[in-house]
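Quick question about two entries, pasted in order.
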Amino acid sequence: MNQLPNIITIARLFLVPVIIYSILNGEMMLAFWLFVAAGLSDAVDGFLARQLAARSELGAYLDPVADKALLVSIYVSLGWAGFLPDWLVLLVVSRDVMIVGGVVLGWVMAMPLAMDPALISKANTAAQIALAALVLAVAGSGLEAAAAVDMLVIVTAATTGVSALGYLLRWGGHMGLWALPGRPAADTVLSEEQGKRENP
């Protein structure tokens, strides 16, 4: 039972190619409902992890990977099909590539950055999900909601840009490229620790 949340997360990963196939073949309403199912599975595995006290290091990394794979794939597919502007797709994908690259580089350099998304990142994820769901629903039902889509495009673009900048500043401070407000740079901390060892 403790592995059930991770199994659900893996199942969500398997939904990704099915949703992409549906979008590229014009089955937009099917893609919408599959996207809803993926979203519900995200809520369910989180609930089960808390109730079963089954939170694990694997789940901490697997869950955001599944979420990013789902959203990035949907945005690329919707952009390819002409339902989202290319510049927005590029912005969303670039942000996630930057984050994944930063995480990998941190691990390679033995300076892993904790996976604790900021409030703006959570708002950005919510905006991305809302926009993708709305576009899929509109395309599948034929309803007219151009104004709502345009508004969400602007909100998604703005939160994506701010979130990317915030992550870059935090990652750079963590890696010692610069000091964050109220925090010394990493090289300063290291030199202070070295001084303590040399002069106890």
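Here is the second entry:
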Amino acid sequence: MRELLAGEIRRFANTCIWSLQGWRAAWASEKSLRQWTLVNLLSATLAFTLDLSSGERALILALGLIVLAAELLNTAIEEVVDIVSPGQHPRAGKAKDCGSAGVALAALAGGAAWVVILFG
């Protein structure tokens, strides 16, 4: 039992390390991730400044994190596409465009939540 628990702790620690490495790599190379992070910091500040319910705050914070997750996944898609298809290819472009559209939809969801919360 002790070995099982130690193994799970090691796996969790490795997962945290790999996730941090991914964040740092994307942060260093992706201006859009830095921009969305700034937007999220401003959004979170506003969410805690305004008189919002706990549920409204949670929704705003969760959607902000989803935008960041979508941006990271989009970055991953772009990196893999660039390795597999270094030249111009319509399907490579489609994959990248779909990733970008996913980020846009997540951002629109966050914006829509703000509009509904602020204007009912």
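Reply: The helical segments are 2-29, 31-49, 54-84, 90-119. The radius of gyration is 18 Å. Hope that helps.
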